[in-house]
Design goal:
Blueprint lengths: L16 H5 L5 E2 L5 H14 L4 E4 L3 H11 L3 E4 L4 E4 L8 E6 L5 H13 L3 E5 L7 H5 L2 H5 L3 E6 L5 H6 L6 E5 L11 H8 L7 E2 L5 H21 L27 E12 L4 H13 L4 E8 L5 E9 L1 H15 L5 E9 L3 E7 L2 E8 L2 E4 L1 H11 L3 H11 L1 H11 L18
Parallel strand pairs: 1-2, 5-6, 5-7, 7-8, 8-9
Antiparallel strand pairs: 2-4, 3-4, 10-12, 10-13, 11-12, 14-15, 15-16
Helix pairs in contact: 2-3, 4-9, 10-11, 12-13
Length: 422
């Protein structure tokens, strides 16, 4: 493997595309043998960490490829798609709007590819402009999306109408559906390209895949802007200088933004004992955090909301645990950013007992389990042991605080000395 690609003889998969664009190269299935598809998929899986997709695959080919590649892949018949390692939800909602039932297969491809790369999809079918009242009935729901894909053949005016009704980016997909004068989609294509709805994107005929990829680029650009203030795609390794500190880390350097997934579900028939056990299981399984909050549901029923914060790699296992332990029939997934400040863990001695203390830029805190063990052995109150541990950890706290730099006062000025860590 050299220069960012692997020479397989029949193909040269671009193994470095994920580093440049955020997604591995996608494999177009038609025209390739099963063996060729398998070889390319194996290469991409080995060289990348993101989702690997094969488009336009027939059922027999899909079954043969899955049998050769092994576990981890899935066939999505509605989208004629093979998927390995689908992305976690990114918190970006894509509305997929189709004019007629016959446009459904192209809309399905757009929807399933979008789901595979982490977009949340809302489908709106059979809302062509020949029955405008059907479109207006769901206008508010469509307008709430972050981007809209419009799929139409005989009703090629649909994207123009939607583009005049919503403020989100609109991606138009002409289809080859229709009678003679549709010219296999060319008529719809020209109508969409001639639209007076300014700024509309138009992709190739029948290419739901291209529409989903356009939506992914919009989502990725938004994520870059949120994290760094920079919306320009850059080569791997390029340095991006943020325009300013993130609000949550203002005045301190070293904070990092991590993409996480927030899971939640409401339950009204699970005991406190089970919920406590659930939280422990989730934390043991790799969740970054798990907690339970009381809520009031419809008909004033008391209930609890189970919350889980997890990295992408732990999401599937955390979902399985929540559904198995609570009996819930579903849960919600939201992609979130977590700001993490630098921290260190030191071990101090309290009366001959080891107590771990976690220290960050703004303070330190002893580990509760260690404090309980020491307090029990010494016959002292918890607060007394915690205070001793905190005092013993002060040198480490001061060291980390010095590294963080001076702290701004209310007017934004900084003193020459860092603040004290309490």
């Amino acid at each position: 493997m050299t220069n960012g690609f692997e020479d397989l003889g029949h193909s040269r998969p671009d193994t470095a595309r994920e580093a440049r664009t955020g997604l591995p190269e996608v494999v177009y299935g038609p025209g390739k043998t099963v063996a060729e598809i398998v070889a390319v998929v194996d290469s991409l899986l080995a060289a990348n960490t993101g989702p690997v997709l094969v488009t336009r695959v027939e059922p027999a080919v899909a079954d043969a490829v899955l049998a050769d590649v092994g576990a981890g892949g899935a066939h999505v018949p509605a989208g004629r798609l093979l998927v390995w390692r689908p992305a976690a939800p990114r918190g970006f909602v894509l509305a997929v709007v189709s004019a007629g039932t016959s446009d459904g297969p192209v809309a399905a491809e757009a929807a399933e590819v979008a789901r595979a790369v982490g977009l949340t999809v809302r489908r709106f079918a059979d809302v062509g402009v020949a029955g405008l009242h059907r479109l207006l009935a769901v206008r508010d729901e469509i307008a709430a999306a972050d981007a809209v894909v419009c799929v139409a053949g005989m009703e090629g005016a649909l994207p123009s109408v939607v583009g005049g009704l919503v403020g989100a980016p609109v991606i138009a997909v002409p289809t080859s559906i229709g009678y003679g004068a549709t010219l296999d989609g060319v008529t719809a294509l020209l109508a969409m390209m001639s639209s007076c709805a300014a700024g509309m994107t138009v992709v190739n005929i029948d290419s739901g895949f291209s529409a989903a990829m356009a939506a992914f680029r919009i989502a990725a650009s938004r994520e870059r802007a949120a994290a760094t203030g920079d919306t320009i795609a850059r080569p791997a390794g390029a340095t991006v200088r943020p325009t300013g500190p993130a609000p949550a880390t203002a005045g301190r350097e070293g904070g990092t933004v991590e993409r996480m997934v927030h899971l939640e579900t409401n339950v009204d028939d699970v005991t406190g004992e089970v919920l406590g056990h659930l939280v422990e299981r989730l934390l043991t399984a790799g969740a970054a955090d798990a907690w339970v909050a009381p809520v009031v549901m419809k008909k004033s029923r008391p209930a609890h909301t189970v919350h889980v914060l997890a990295a992408t790699s732990a999401v599937a296992e955390c979902e399985r645990i929540v559904l198995a332990e609570t009996g819930s029939l579903g849960l919600r997934r939201t992609s979130v950013d977590r700001v993490a400040l630098p921290r260190t863990t030191t071990t101090v001695d309290v009366g001959g007992h080891r107590v771990r203390v976690k220290t960050g830029p703004w303070g330190s805190k002893p580990e509760h389990d260690d404090v309980v063990a020491a307090a029990t052995a010494l016959g002292l109150p918890l607060r007394a042991v915690a205070a001793r541990a905190g005092a013993a950890a002060q040198p480490a706290a001061a060291s980390l605080d010095d590294a963080a730099g001076p702290v701004p006062d209310a007017a934004g000025a900084t003193s020459g000395e860092p603040d004290d860590v309490v």
